[in-house]
Design brief:
132 residues; His-Me finger endonuclease fold; mainly alpha; 6 helices; two-stranded antiparallel sheet
């Protein structure tokens, strides 16, 4: 029989069973998920890149990571490919990929609204206030 939701009675029972199973086994399922992600880091990276930035993102990331030798394009600090990975920096207006940055450099660009003029003013400010 079809219910008001458009599901059969069996589908409703199955959904309820899974809901209860997931609730009872939350810790076990969470650990299994972590283990799977640890053992499938490339799949996780590819899924994340594709979901957030589109089909070309994963290939862009891998190519840039190799070209940059795992280092942030701005500060030059090395970052592991998976743990604390580099950020996929892109132009927010066009969506075009720019480079890989560490979290700090990416946040700094964002705080300066991706404005080269503001960044230049900030640089000049620091230069003007250096202690000799």
């Amino acid at each position: 029989m079809i219910t008001e939701t458009g599901l059969t009675d069996d589908q409703v029972r199955r959904a309820e069973y899974l809901k209860q199973y997931n609730k009872i086994n939350k810790a076990k399922l969470s650990q299994q998920k972590k283990e799977w992600a640890k053992n499938n880091q490339d799949k996780v990276l590819k899924c994340d890149m594709t979901r957030h930035y589109g089909e070309k993102a994963y290939d862009n990331y891998i190519k840039a990571y190799e070209e940059q030798i795992g280092c942030c394009k701005i500060c030059g600090k090395y970052h592991d490919r998976y743990k604390n990975r580099l950020v996929y920096d892109h132009n927010h207006k066009s969506g075009d990929f720019r480079s890989l940055l560490c979290n700090n450099c990416n946040k700094a660009l964002g705080l300066f609204c991706d404005s080269s003029e503001l960044l230049s003013k900030a640089s000049n400010y620091l230069l003007d206030h250096q202690h000799h």
